[in-house]
Write a structure and sequence with these properties.
Length: 320
């Protein structure tokens, strides 16, 4: 759901202008985001969702013969975007708890590496990346290789040890941060995200960006969302509260899984995944199934969360 007032704002200020092209660079939003994140407008580029800014970055830095290192399993678009640029994916399997294998990521670096992607919290395993682990990666990566911190769900990350990419951006010269209005802000259908990066990287990303990709409606909705940041905080708090309630209920049923730090959690079901998935479908719940690996369950309304708890109880009863 968009935040309150956002739909009305679009209706009043944007719908009457859809015969016109949007501001190509989205300066008003760029300036607002730069002020919010404590960087210069030259450090910000918009995209048609953070998917587009990730695509801009990958096509800027990598081509045939180049390697991009990232954890796996992670956001499903990474391999597609890397393949689209003609580059090679180097997927580093997560640790058994679903978190990034930092030694593995560092071990995968070589002279062909052009980019490292870190996803915090990780989709779909909901694990958090600690500041210490992020710094280990930054110390190992040569300064002419970029590191992308994809923080699509950062508003939900309550881990006190979590890395904060915007803080690291001020310390290291080779960091790109991707944020989006799709998740906590509830604007997935409008497609607006952005990156914070060194000015020369942003300049390159703008050159490879899709012209006019971010519509005026999307820019207005993003600006209106930033106007109601208190509502965002309230919504995020509610979701985190529900997440903690569901996790506590499942733990008391005997489920073991890593602490989730996103607006979803991950049940590592391995071979039982398909059987468990059938139970969720039967209950009318929509969950994301990764055959043979596990299920990602998004925190929803309290009634839906209650149903999740009940299905999990039944699964435990069946010995899964
Ligand atoms: C980790 C991660 N990054 C980025 C995205 C892209 O989101 P969008 O393109 O809507 O900003 C997603 C969407 O699911 C995601 O899970």
């Amino acid at each position: 759901m968009p935040l309150p007032g956002v739909v009305e704002e679009i209706r009043q200020r944007s719908l009457g202008r859809i015969n016109r092209y949007p501001d190509m660079r989205g300066w008003e939003l760029v300036e607002r985001l730069a002020a919010l994140d404590g960087v210069e407008p030259e450090n910000v580029v918009l995209g048609c969702g953070s998917s587009e800014v990730i695509t801009q970055l990958v096509s800027l830095v990598a081509g045939p013969g180049d390697e991009i290192v990232y954890p796996w399993r992670s956001f499903e678009a990474y391999p597609i975007i890397v393949a689209g640029a003609g580059a090679t994916s180097v997927q580093v399997p997560n640790r058994p708890d679903g978190s990034h294998d930092i030694d593995g990521i560092i071990g995968a670096l070589n002279e062909h590496t052009r980019l490292v992607i870190l996803n915090n919290p990780n989709n779909p395993t909901a694990t958090s990346l600690s500041d210490a682990d992020a710094r280990r990666v930054m110390e190992a990566v040569p300064s002419d290789v970029l590191v992308l911190f994809d923080e699509a769900y950062f508003q939900f990350n309550t881990d006190p040890d979590a890395s904060v990419a915007l803080d690291l951006f001020r310390e290291y010269p080779n960091i790109v941060v991707a944020h989006t209005f799709s998740k906590a802000y509830g604007l997935a259908g409008l497609r607006v995200g952005y990156a914070v990066a060194p000015a020369d990287v942003i300049e390159g990303m703008r050159k490879v960006s899709l012209p006019f990709a971010v519509s005026d409606v999307a820019q207005r909705a993003a600006l209106a969302s930033l106007d109601v940041s208190q509502e965002l905080e309230g919504r995020v708090k509610l979701i985190i509260g529900e997440r903690d309630r569901v996790v506590a209920a499942l733990r008391s049923q005997g489920w073991q899984f890593a602490e989730p730090y996103a607006n979803f959690f991950w049940l590592p079901l391995g071979e039982s995944t398909d059987a468990a998935a059938a139970a969720f479908v039967e209950a009318g719940l929509s969950v994301r199934v990764f055959g043979g690996e596990g299920i990602r369950i998004t925190i929803g309304e309290p009634e839906a969360n209650d149903m999740v708890i009940e299905v999990c109880r039944q699964l435990k009863e069946r010995g899964l």
